[in-house]
Amino acid sequence: MTDILDSLPYYDNDLDAHPNLRQKVERELAREPKPPAALHPRIAPEYVLFAKNEALKTELERVETHQSFTPIDTHRYQLPAPALPGSDEEWQSALDNARAQLEHQRLRQTNISLLQTYGPNAWRIQNYLLEADVTQVEKALEQLQTLTVEINRERKNEQTRIGSQLTSLETRWTELLSNVLQIEMANVALDAEINNLNKREAELSSVL
């Protein structure tokens, strides 16, 4: 089946040549119904980041809304002593807090030691994986951009070729139409001349 092209945007310049046409087109477009809000079924749905991690999702929403970071509560890292003389319950609470702080510091030392031992390699591996992902994405983007440029170039070349053919055909049609009109006018003139000659012949015949 032959493709029917009723518009050649790379070739047509009617809107630029005739400004009143642009106004008519804009009025017609204003009457058109609004495009549907739903996307095309072939378009993949929007990807929701951190859908399974509520903490990271909340943090992402905070960054997107430009909200300030919630200050860290340092109260639990303090070692307030009860007011002297203090009750047994107050001293026991202070002692429990000191033990919790000591355990926290011990865990921090353990984590720091593990990070110093295994952190650099894990960081390098993660960077390598991220760089590989970035390379793949950039390559895919480059391929899509190249494909887009090629499609646009082919579309422009095809429309330019078809537009040139249409212009040539329109010019030829105008020439043929002009020739037909000239021939019709010549026929009318010949018919008038023939009628005049017939009348003249009739007049001469009557005289003779």
UniProtKB/TrEMBL annotation:
The record's comment on protein family reads: Belongs to the SPF27 family.
**What keywords were assigned to this record?**
Coiled coil, mRNA processing, mRNA splicing, Nucleus, Spliceosome
Check the record and name the PANTHER family matching this protein.
Answer: BCAS2 PROTEIN, PRE-MRNA-SPLICING FACTOR SPF27
Q: Where along the sequence do coiled-coil regions lie?
A: 134-161
| Record bears the keyword Oxidoreductase | no
Q: Which InterPro entries match?
A: SPF27
Q: Does the keyword Coiled coil apply?
A: yes
Q: Which GO terms describe its cellular component?
A: catalytic step 2 spliceosome; precatalytic spliceosome; Prp19 complex
Q: What is the lineage of its organism?
A: Eukaryota, Fungi, Dikarya, Basidiomycota, Agaricomycotina
User: Which Pfam families does the entry link to?
Assistant: BCAS2
According to its UniProt record, where is this protein located? Nucleus
Which Gene Ontology BP terms does the record give?
A: mRNA processing; RNA splicing
Q: What is this protein called?
A: Breast carcinoma amplified sequence 2
Q: Which organism is it from?
A: Cylindrobasidium torrendii FP15055 ss-10
